[in-house]
Structures are given as structure tokens and as C-alpha cells.
Amino acid sequence: MLLATRANAAKSSIDNLRRRQAASGLGLRGDIAAGLQRMEYYLDECEAALKKGESTAAKKNLDAGERETSKLEDFLGR
To answer: What pTM was computed for the model?
Structure first.
């Protein structure tokens, strides 16, 4: 799944940024941290909906997860 690959890459990059900033005594921007949590939530909900056979809910969460992933990629300059 392409979205899963994109989401994992964004999460990894943001986790690295978070560690670098923490080493300097800084924190990650709140909107970015919240966006990462939303992305993970939506993708988890999509997976759960698929397992239950709820295609409409899966599509809704997949679309929301894609939007959050795109926002994080924009922040990362991708």
C-alpha cells in the first residue's frame, strides 16, 4: 500500500526531527505532533474497518489519513 509507505516515511522523519530537537532542548511543533497522531489514528481505524468489512468507514478513514500524511509531507518539504 503506497499510503502506508508514505505514512511510515513521514513518521520516521518526524520521529528523527523530534529526537534532534529534544537533544537541543526544543520540542516538536504542536500542530505537527497532533497531525502525526491523527494520521496514525485514521490509518488504524481504516485497518480496523477493513477487518470488519466496513468499506465505507475504511474509505473515509483512508481519505482522512491521506490528507494528514500529505500535510506532514508538506511540512517535511516532500
So the answer is: 0.91
